[in-house]
Amino acid sequence: MRPHFSILYRLFNFYYDGFRNISDWGRKVWIIIIIKLFIMFVILRIFFFQDFLHKNYANDKQRSEHVMDQLINSSDKHD
Amino acid sequence: MIENIDLSLVDWSRAQFALTAIYHWLFVPLTLGLSFILAIMETIYVRTGKEEWKRITQFWMTLFGINFAIGIATGIILEFEFGTNWSNYSWFVGDIFGAPLAMEAILAFFLESTFVAVMFFGWNKVSKKYHMVSTWLVAIGASLSALWILVANAWMQNPVGMMFNPDTARNEMVNFWAILFNQVAVDKFLHTISSGFLLASMFVLGISAWFLLRKREDLLAKRSILVAGVFGLLSSLLVAFTGDGSARRVSKVQPVKFASMEALYEGKNNAGLIAFGILKDTNKKIGEKSVKEFAFKIEIPGLLSVLTGGDKDAYVQGLADHMFGNEKLGIISVPDKIQRGIVARDALTSYKRAKLINDTAQIEALKGVFNDKDFHDKYFRYFGYASINKPEDVIPDVTISFYSFHFMVILGFLFIMIFSAALYLLFRGTIADKRWFLWIALLSIPLPYVAGELGWILTEVGRQPWIIQDMMTVSKAVSQISTGSVITTFILFAVLFTGLLISEISIMVKQIKTGPKH
């Protein structure tokens, strides 16, 4: 086997063995990680956390104009 | 238009960010500190060759793994919020915030993630030394990734190393090193990571105390108390030292926050340090704002002057100095800063108008103004004041600032006493018999979490109304989205994070009860 394939094989084996022999708590936390990442990147990111400026303005020029308007118009309201 | 912005949108956006940041900070400090404790324990194992240290390291590594895995990526939610809820702010800070966050992501992903795998899968597969180095690299990588987040936060407290580009409405980095070595960043980094070390030490001490209370794992518990006691005592002293440096820095770069955390309304010479006090409602006002005064206080005369100015006769600035100005000290009043902010805002308005009518001469002239350091230092650095309605609006919540600071300091001294007592009792050989102390150690596990959260509350509430000190208010930073969507995601986060926390605690408690492998 060529050296770089050997390294890749050993690396793959390292992770494969690690995951195959994972402990009980390790299995539980991996399930939690997968559920969490799904909620974060699929549900929250797609449905609730779209980038406001990218969603509402087509290009950087429009985005900077929008922010400029926010910066120079009026004052704040405070409690 | 911002005139029509719903105030509850600002408050809900604040609450949402506070909720996610507070939950995120429940996971991070244990990772920061426990990784170093593991590295120390494993180093002892490699140097002595004693198997008991390997078993001890592996036990604490399990708890580290649970915390690391459940806490992983919780910080990314904060980055989601920047783009959705704080889009004006995200745009305005430009690459100053983006570059450190990108560095954090790269470091966290490549360094921590790679070597965490070696830590957990590599026992008996790689050499002892390689494994130990991997553990050290995870610890160093965790602290380095925290560094970049703290650099970004420090810039918000003390914006340096940038110039504003009126074409893009963004701040651009002109001096990376000024941002990295911003004194606020240095103080914040040292104080924050040492507080993480302290927290993890208390975690190890408390759980070891539980084993001794249950008369289980005597050797593991005592060895762990030795490492946690020494590391915790050194860390708690470092926390006190860096906290003092940090407070001193705040007195220079955020004097309004400093006066608020000391509830110091009128500046004075020979100012006393309030060790503890209780605030009550009175008729006292700063401008139009009612403020609370002390119903009771324990004060050490002159110490605040000594700590901030190096001399008991040094003058310590009060809130009134900043509200009304102090010519003798060169402090500009808030109304004056508002005028300077308006000058900067008017220059930006003129620039926008000149671009609209394509007045090239005016455009070039105003570009020169924005590139002028003198204009930046005298006017643009007060840009945020242009949106302040009443001078009193720049005073943060004194009650929250005062109590969060003082309870944090009191807890800091308590931790020094607990670690000192643990080491004293351990070396006398009586720790296992002192059940009262073991209970104190066990029940103290949540206290460093409380202290850490209080520190962040002080940092963030104390600089209100600013999101970027003097340059941008929180109200200006918020995106014009519906309040309902912010409330929905607030509830979603509360459920998600509470679920994660319950999972972490239940899996951890189960593993602690199971104990180390024999």
Helix share, percent of chain A: over 70%
Approximate strand percentage of chain B: 5-15%
Mean pLDDT of chain B: 90
Shape annotation of chain A: elongated
Computed Rg of chain B: 25 Å
Say how many strands of chain B there are. 8
- Number of helices, counting only DSSP H or I runs of 4 residues or more of chain A: 4
End-to-end separation of chain B in angstroms reads 67 Å
Largest interface: A-B, 42 and 61 residues
Computed over alpha carbons, the radius of gyration of chain A is 24 Å
Low-confidence stretches of chain B: none
Helical element count of chain B? Answer: 20
In one word, what is the shape of chain B?
Answer: globular
Q: Name the structural class of chain A.
A: mainly alpha
Mean pLDDT of chain A: 82
Structural summary, described in words:
The complex is a heterodimer of chains A (79) and B (518). In chain A, 77% of the residues lie in helices and 0% in strands. With 79 residues, chain A is mainly alpha-helical. The longest helix of chain A has 25 residues, at 24-48. Chain A is elongated. Chain A starts with a helix and ends in a 7-residue tail after the last helix. Chain B has 518 residues and is mainly α. Chain B is 70% helix and 8% strand. Chain B has 20 helices and eight strands. In chain B, α8 crosses α17. The longest helix of chain B has 42 residues, at 7-48. The termini of chain B are far apart. The mean pLDDT of chain B is 90. The chains are: A mainly alpha (79), B mainly alpha (518). At the A-B interface, α1, α2, α3 and α4 of A face α2, α3, α4, α5 and α13 of B.
What structural keywords apply?
heterodimer; A: 79 residues; mainly alpha; 77% helix; 0% strand; elongated; B: 518 residues; two-stranded antiparallel ribbon; two-stranded antiparallel sheet; 20 helices; globular
